[in-house]
Amino acid sequence: MPDRDTIVYRGKGSIYLNVTARCSCDCDFCLREFTREVFGADLTLTSEPAPDDLEREIELAFLDGPADEVAFCGLGEPTMCLDTVLAVTGWLTRRRLRSRLVTNGHGQLLNPDVAVADALARAGLSATTVSLNAADPQVYDLLCRPIFSKAHRAVIGFAAACVEHGIDTTLTAVDLPEADLPGCAAIAEAVGAAFRPRAYIPRDGGNRRSIVDEPPSDEPRAGRR
Known about the structure:
This protein has a single domain, classed as Aldolase class I (TIM Barrel). The strands form 2 sheets. Strands 1-2-5-6-7-8-9 form a 7-stranded mixed sheet, covered by helices on one side. A two-stranded antiparallel sheet has the order 3-4. It has 7 helices and 9 strands. It is globular and about 45 Å long. By secondary structure, it is of the alpha/beta class. The chain has helices spanning 51-62, 82-94, 107-110, 116-123, 137-144, 151-164, 181-191; strands at residues 8-11, 14-17, 37-38, 41-42, 70-72, 99-103, 127-131, 168-174, 194-198.
């Protein structure tokens, strides 16, 4: 058990920021369904870090060598802490460091009083990776179990707004049969974004049954963390 929370960690040439454990989705395929470790780092948070805590840890991380980018990506949805994301993005921009937001695309739903894509662009965000995860809204609801209605439409709208504001935008989907990767790629093309499939990581190394084909369950699901 670490003496303190891991709020900054490294992997694949990037420095990642772990800003929150809260999320507006409860995805069927999410890593946090079966682990708290990513790239060997325990991402359990006892509290959400302040911008100055993250900035200090980023500086320390760069002492270990260069990084291609600094990305907001933990086991929660970063835009639930939008003020922190904007503050740290601005700090990175002033230091000419590339920044990327890894998001479920609910930023505008979570922050209805803010023009989120515009605020991110003004802070200097370089890129965003938006998890679309399904071409069909009903399948999206089954896979991602969002707290919002019509969330699929909002995800696409958020990605389109980021493209319009000049943010390098990539839509992604986990490689599952029900996700319809060609359909997801077509949506990405329509909004002017790139598309990239993500590998599905099974929780036990076994086969996964399609959630679309599963009968409804009366058992309550675990609450969102």
